[in-house]
Amino acid sequence: MNKTAFITGASSGIGLELAHVFAKHGDDLVLAARSRSKLDKLKEELEKQHNIKVYNISKDLSFLIQPKKSMRRSNSKTLS
Questions:
Q1: Are 5 and 27 in contact (CB under 8 A)?
Q2: φ and ψ at residue 19, rounded to 5 degrees
Q3: How far apart are CA 40 and CA 35, in angstroms?
Q4: 35 DSSP assignment
Q5: 10 Å Cβ neighbour count for 68?
Q6: What pLDDT, on the 0 to 100 scale, is given for residue 30?
Q7: Which of 17, 54, 64, 80 is 20 to 30 A (C-alpha) from 71?
Q8: Is 69 helix (H, G, I), strand (E, B) or coil?
Q9: Please, which residues bridge with residue 21 across strands?
């Protein structure tokens, strides 16, 4: 069974690099960032290169309530 990593800020910088590291190790990913288009491109790239499953959350997690809602969605696998 694959592990799943939840990575915020995944569309650039440290978050992007962490997504590549975890994908390389075969972990499924839940990626969060504000840019839907960047997340979709990254999802396609990582799933193809590493044969993993990637779920995207296009939200601004700078608000306190957003991480709680996002985690609930990731737990139920009904991500949007």
A1: yes
A2: -60, -45
A3: 9
A4: -
A5: 11
A6: 96
A7: 17
A8: helix
A9: none
Lookup result for tokens 């959350």: 57
The answer to whether 60 touches 67, Cβ cutoff 8 Å, is no
User: DSSP alpha helices (H): ranges in the chain?
Assistant: 13-24, 36-50, 65-76
- Give the domain range for residue 29: 4-76
* Whole-angstrom Cα Rg for the chain: 12
Q: What percent of the chain has pLDDT over 90?
A: 70
Q: What is the pLDDT of residue 78?
A: 52
**pLDDT beyond 70 at 57:** yes
What CATH code is carried by the domain that includes residue 43? 3.40.50.720
**The total number of structural domains that make up the chain:** 1
Q: Which helix (H) or strand (E) holds 4?
A: strand 4-8
Rounded to a whole number, what is the distance in angstroms from the first to the last CA of the chain? 24
